[in-house]
Write a structure and sequence with these properties.
Blueprint: E1 2-4, E2 10-13, H1 18-40, E3 66-70, E4 73-78, E5 91-92, E6 103-110, E7 113-120, E8 131-138, E9 141-146, E10 155-163, E11 168-176, E12 180-185, E13 188-193, E14 196-200, E15 202-206, E16 210-217, E17 221-227, E18 237-241, E19 246-254, E20 259-271, E21 277-288, E22 298-305, E23 315-322, E24 331-339, E25 348-353, E26 368-370, E27 384-385, E28 394-401, E29 407-412, E30 416-417, E31 430-440, E32 445-447, E33 451-455
Parallel strand pairs: 5-7, 11-19
Antiparallel strand pairs: 1-10, 2-10, 3-4, 4-6, 6-7, 8-9, 9-10, 11-15, 12-13, 12-16, 13-14, 16-18, 17-19, 20-21, 21-24, 22-23, 22-25, 25-26, 27-30, 28-29, 28-31, 31-32, 31-33
């Protein structure tokens, strides 16, 4: 809403000759607009949008002698309007009764209609001044010409547009999380259930209104904080000042625990020889995604599986208790070690947390953790390829020992070697040491460094 100062902020005077320059300038501008309209081929609108009249207009007021528009505001001059009395409707200034004092009318658009908002007159107006002979508006300033003011030299008056529009902003409350609760404030009473809102969750308020939003969780939930551009807080009570449209999101979480896990480390040891060792080690991190602490001990089962699915065909490695309390949004850790009778190939470790359902969890479907395929701690080979030139010219010998240094094999090779000992028995899965030596036809001898060999099938 725009209002208009009852006092002109300036009065400008010029000598009488200036009026002819002004008059001719207005005429020239009018002719230029008509000419350009013809050149550009613009046609007049076929429908009249509005007809503006003065609320107190009288014959020979010459309402419409001058007009100006800026955005949604139109200024119309009536230079021959008479001031009948000092209390005329919408009249401001021009407190002297007289003829041809002149007046200016201000109209503001609201939607598709125009409404008279003010009538401007000069405070020092006198009969015959013709205030409103010319008008102009730019932004918040209105300029009015009084053609015959001061007995002929004329004057111009500046008026300041004072904005009194009440700017309003919208406050919207939304919900997030799996919990339940309410958000209340003046004009707001919003019910939130698992992120879905109902009730009065939106209101329009005047600019700079101070609002206090109060989040109250239901008995089965806990409040987990506010989010939004201007709404970040962990407290249930949130104070905001509306300087723009604002959306505040309240998060509620159901009370309870929700355990999920991840295998942060796993290793497979496969050692053959006289003292074979086949072992799986794991480190499990357990995350409690619920807001409540675990209230009881629970079991964690470890399985050895051919695939990533836990089923009846999997082998139970062991079941370990977890007795420590995991706080809400906290973590726990468990290390495990299991001995095997042989080295597994292409197997996976699958873990089931709270296998005995000792805890009532918010989600009972996310307790299974699957590892990547197990690989021995040292990369192994089924076959050792041997690069040879001419076999008739080169002798290659391969020696295999267990980790204690006991020689299991020492033989010539014909380009590759399969893992069997001196009596043809296949070497067991495990870790061994080997050396490759080569003698060419000139008797030159070369020998590799000692290397590790892992056999896994």
């Amino acid at each position: 809403m725009r209002n208009f100062s009852s006092q002109p902020i300036a009065r400008l005077s010029k000598n009488r000759r200036s009026r002819w320059i002004t008059s001719m300038g207005v005429l020239a501008l009018t002719l230029a607009v008509i000419t350009m309209g013809s050149v550009l081929g613009l046609s007049a609108p076929t429908t009249e949008n509005a007809k503006l009249t003065a609320s107190d207009g009288a014959p020979v007021d010459s309402f419409g002698t001058s007009v100006a528009i800026d955005g949604d505001t139109i200024v119309v001059g009536a230079p021959f309007a008479d001031v009948v009395n000092a209390d005329a409707v919408n009249a401001v200034g021009c407190r002297n009764t007289g003829t041809d004092c002149g007046a200016v009318y201000v109209f503001v658009r609201n939607g598709s209609s125009w409404t008279q908002r003010a009538k401007l007159t000069a405070k020092d107006a006198a009969s015959g001044d013709q205030f409103g002979y010319s008008v102009a508006i730019s932004g918040d300033t209105i300029l009015v010409g009084a053609y015959e003011a001061n007995g002929g030299p004329g004057a111009a008056y500046l008026f300041a547009v004072r904005s009194t529009a009440q700017q309003n902003f919208t406050l919207t409350v939304t919900g997030k999380g799996n919990g339940n609760g309410t958000v209340t404030a003046t004009g707001i009473n919003c019910v939130i259930a698992a992120g879905t809102t109902s009730g009065n969750c939106l209101g329009t308020f005047a600019a700079k209104t101070k609002m206090t939003l109060t989040a109250t969780p239901a008995t089965d939930s806990v409040f987990a904080g506010w989010s939004g551009d201007k709404c970040k807080s962990s407290k249930g009570t949130l104070k905001v000042t509306l300087k723009a449209n604002l959306t505040c999101t309240a998060r509620f979480r159901l009370l309870g625990v929700d355990l999920v896990g991840v295998l942060t480390k796993q290793s497979l040891t496969c050692k053959g020889g006289s003292k074979p060792k086949f072992e799986i080690k794991t480190k499990l991190e357990i995350k409690n995604n619920g807001p409540s602490s675990t209230a009881a001990a629970f079991s964690i089962d470890y399985f050895l599986s051919d695939d990533a699915t836990l089923d009846g065909g999997d082998t139970l490695l062991g079941s370990l208790p977890f007795t420590k309390t995991i706080k809400g949004d906290g973590t726990g850790k468990q290390s495990a070690k299991f001995s095997l009778t042989s080295c597994p190939t292409n197997k996976r470790v699958i873990v089931k947390i709270d296998s005995g359902n000792a805890l009532a969890e918010l989600d009972e479907t996310n307790n299974v953790v699957t590892s990547e395929a197990l690989i021995p701690s040292s990369a192994g080979l089924e076959v050792i390829p041997v690069e040879m030139g001419n076999q008739d010219e080169t002798q290659v010998r391969i020696a295999i020992c267990d980790l204690s240094g006991r020689k299991l094999l020492d033989e010539m090779s014909a380009g590759e070697w399969s893992p069997a000992d001196t009596v043809g028995k296949r070497l067991a899965n495990g870790v061994y040491l080997y050396i490759v030596s080569v003698r060419d036809r000139d008797g030159k001898f070369m020998q590799s460094e000692v290397r590790k060999l892992v056999i896994r099938r």
